[in-house]
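Project standup — Tuesday

K.O.: blocked on the structure for the chain from last sprint. Re-posting the sequence here as requested.
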Amino acid sequence: MDKFKIKLVYGFFKVLSLLPLRVLLALSDCFVYPLVYHVVGYRLKVVRRNLRNSFPSMSDKELKTIERRFYRHFCDSFMETVRILSMSREEAVQRMHFVNPELVTNYLSKGQGVMMMLGHYGNWEYQPFLFLNVLESEKQEGFSVYRPLKSKSFDHLYYKIRTHFDGGVVTKDETYRTIIRLKRAGKPGVFGMVCDQSPSRNNLHYWTNFLHQDTSILTGSERIAVKTGFAVIFADVEKLGRGYYQTTYHLISDNPQETAPNEITEQYARLMEQTILRDPAYWLWTHKRWKHHRSDQASAEQPQTSSTDSGF
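H.V.: unblocked you, prediction finished:
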């Protein structure tokens, strides 16, 4: 039964992906957005709570405007992501413009791996398009780090989307082992890690003020960078129009072993916050980002037993 569901879900979205993006965005306007926002109200209470707490000085009218723009973008980005299943390399290059990819390639050319820190902003599924531009065949490798979805059908779907252009995918538990494998093979790698999720109770290691709220930030990217010597780079995304984005890279550290504890994580939090404040509508407000409190840390804290317990 599971295999049938997997094939059915993948087959449906594969056929849908054959439509031009302009048609998919028209479907978003006419069907997906009204259904998700007005009929279902998908996680509407979560979105409203997150927006109110993040922007306490905004009026109800201002928050409502962001809310509506967010849901339109949320539905658009899903259709944009579906399109990847049938997207050509030529179209991918047009959809995501990388302003300064040389910041990445310069480290790779010196044999230094890169830890790419990003958030659920814009369309993060377009970030692996970088691999089409910068990786030298047989000499370098690129990976998206992900958490497997509970739904096997959609987990398979997103696996197909993320590997459409031959990029690699690894789970958080496979990341460190993959880095060691690449080092032994003499290959520098790029690992893209979405770092704005809410940590599990066992990973409440660092707290900061983020969007006017006491917030725990994932530290796994920093811990692995310190252990491996990878350069750490932040991906700053801007939406140029429906289906079009650009990314500008900012160096956080190219010598993480010499940074103070949590310095990299704090810099990431500040850069991510700046990106969100530039236009809040394009961040993923449906996440239950602030479900933990500092009191949860004391009750759940336990010794770290493995470098792969990174909580990506």
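K.O.: great, moving the ticket to review. The first strand starts at residue 96 and ends at 98. The longest helix spans residues 60-83.
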